[in-house]
Write a structure and sequence with these properties.
0% strand, mainly alpha, 53 residues
Length: 53
């Protein structure tokens, strides 16, 4: 919080960060390599669609 001048900036960053973290946090240790790659590819394609919109 020290690097943010306004509380509003911190809130915007935290909201965006949590959305992105939830999208890409795949907890790799629970999946085999094949499933991890499939889930990561799906997450990346969804992210690209969101950025294109």
């Amino acid at each position: 919080m020290l690097k943010f001048r306004r509380m509003r900036s911190l809130q915007k960053f935290a909201a965006t960060h949590s959305s992105v973290d939830n999208l890409f946090n795949l907890e790799r240790h629970f999946y085999s390599r094949e499933n991890f790659k499939k889930n990561r590819t799906t997450a990346l394609s969804e992210w690209r669609q969101l950025c294109a919109a």
